[in-house]
Structure formats: C-alpha cells, structure tokens
Amino acid sequence: MINPADSGLTATEVAARLGVEMSTVYAYVSRGALTRRVGPDGRRSRYDPDEVEALARRSRPRSGRRTSAAVDVVIGTTISEIGDGWIRYRGLDLINLIDDGYEAVAELLWTAERGSTTTVDDRLRRRVRSAVGRTVKSLPPAAPVSSYLVAGAAAAAPLLPAIGVNPEVVGHLLLDALVVALPPVGPAPTGPTLAARLWPRLSALEASAERVRALDTALVLLAEHELATSTLAVRVAASTRAEPAAAVVSGLATVSGALHGRAAVGVHRWLLGDPDTGLASAGFGHVVHRSGDPRFPALREAIEAISTKRHRTRIAELLDLGAATQTPNVDAALGALGYVGGMAPGATEGVFAIARTAGWLAHAFEEYDEKPVRFRGRTLYRGSAGGRALNRSI
Question: Are the CB atoms for 245 and 176 separated by under 8 Å?
C-alpha cells in the first residue's frame, strides 16, 4: 500500500516504467491490475511503486524485449467502409441514416436493402424474453453489464432459428434478448422501438421522446465500424459455423475488455466528477478519423436537446481537455450521453455492445457464405530450444 507520506508515482511515471501508453495504464486500473488513489493536490492520480514493479515483472516478455508489431487482417466485405471523417453502411453515408432508426439500420446491414422490415412472431418473442428473464435472475445485482448480456444471448440461443434460416428474425430476437437481459431501473417503457425499451434499463429518468431519440442516434452511429477487434472475433467464430448467438457472445466477450467497448465509461466517470483527467483521454483521437470522428458531432447534437446548462458547462470542460491536441471521438459523445441521461457508470458499455450487435450479426451472416474455418494463424516460437518439442499445432 502507498504510505500516506509518500505521493507515489504519477500516471506518466507508471506509463514510462511499464513501457505502455497512458490509455493502457487506465485500462490496468479498470481491470483491477493497478490501484489508483487521488494525490495530495486532490486532482492527479498516484500509484503504489511496489504494485507497479510487480506488474512490470509480470508483464515483461520472456525474450527480454517487447514487440509492438500489429497483426493486420484484411477481409473483403460489402457491409461497411470507413475513412478519415466518413463512414458508409452498405454504401450509404452513415449520417444520412440517423433518421431511419436503429432497427431499420440493422436490417440495412443484414439485408443490404434500405427500408426492409421483418415481422417477428409474438409467441416466439415472448418465449425468448421469458427464457432470458429466468436466466438473468440468477446473476448477482452487482454483476457487470457484460455478464447480463452474455447470459441473455446464451438463454436465447436454443430458441433461435438455425444458421441461414430467417437471419433477420434471428437478429431482432437476439437484440430483444440483450435488452431484456438488463435489469430495469426506470419506469416501464411506453414506446415500441428498441431505444424506447432500452432506456428504462439504463436510466431512472423518464424515457422522453428527446432522450429516446438521443439513445437511438447513438445506437445507429455505433452499429457498425468495419473490422474492429470484436467484429473479427465474431467472424472467426462464424467461420467455424458457430450459431449467431454464440458468435455474438464472442463479440461481447471482446468488448468487455477495458481497451475496446468500455472507453466511454472513463469519460462518463470524469464527467460525474472523478478528478483523474486521464479517464477522459479515451474520448479524444481516433486511429482512422484523424481529422475528426463524424459520429461525435452527430451524437452531440442529439444530446444538446436533453442537456441542462450544468451539463453543457461540464461537457465544455471535457472538450477543453483535448482541444489543443486531438479532436473528440464518439466515446466522448457516448460518455456525455451517459452523463446527461442519468445513467450509472458502466451503462454505456451496454449501449455500445447492443448497438454493435447489429454489425456483428451482419458480419456473421456474411461469413457463413465464406469457406469454413478459413482463419488459420501460426505462431513464431520465441522460447528456448528445449521447449520446441512441446510446440504443436492443433
């Protein structure tokens, strides 16, 4: 533990000692690998030097050197295309699809047809909801959002049509299962849309038309973004002919990691008053959208309609943090939605995961038409010569 008389290490010092980026330091905190406390100035975080040293020893590569090489995977697709400052779903500009609504955009991703609508049998929908409800009751109230979503997908799986049979029905039922899996925290929904049904499971505030629209906008903007890490996991699972629900669970497991689907959680926590400015860093910059993430202004506009003066002031303070160096990304806007919407920290992870399920399913459906088990990686052995006899490919 940190001695009260010792200020401890700063986040910058920790990053230098571990040889990682600042964002990785905060990811270690989110995962519980590092303990953070507020320093003497009441603002900057401090870390226990002994704990940092222990983590450095555990993280040190056996070869004695660290590799930073990325593993690039390129897959042909007709689902989406992204570039600096723009995103297209099925060849259509994403920003122009916002008013279509999330369910319609999901069907566009699945069918490549704009305006396509699928009717789901009410009896089957009720059976899925009932199965999900029974399953999630066994989870402890403090379970993370990801646990509820995984349980919901698993409970729905046996009731869904087989691979290739009514994929749009499978999609709508799975999305419904994920919504129902989250415990309600607000008044019963009054609207028929997925966003209207999801809002009371994220916030105790009334599901007003403006709030539901802001949430629906977020769902549309986050529905697909090419081959993100979670989407690759889904496609790998689908290539083995895993059922759609199982493929989605692969995606859910991936976004539960601190470096993917939970970036907005840190932004949300900072907006709520956490003094650690590092938490807000995930809301700035993007590896593709270097000149600006087009999803940020689109979602911010929807959030403005439900913001108070206090909300706007705090969000302006957030934007000031990165104004000099980087542009805000969609995680900044999603964190702001959680803040303005009165959601509990962690709720934005659920928004991201449910939104991205539409894209995951589109990729799974597309992968089913490809050669099975086409992903075959190889390792480059870096151990001692004596261990080579144990290095076998399965």
Answer: no
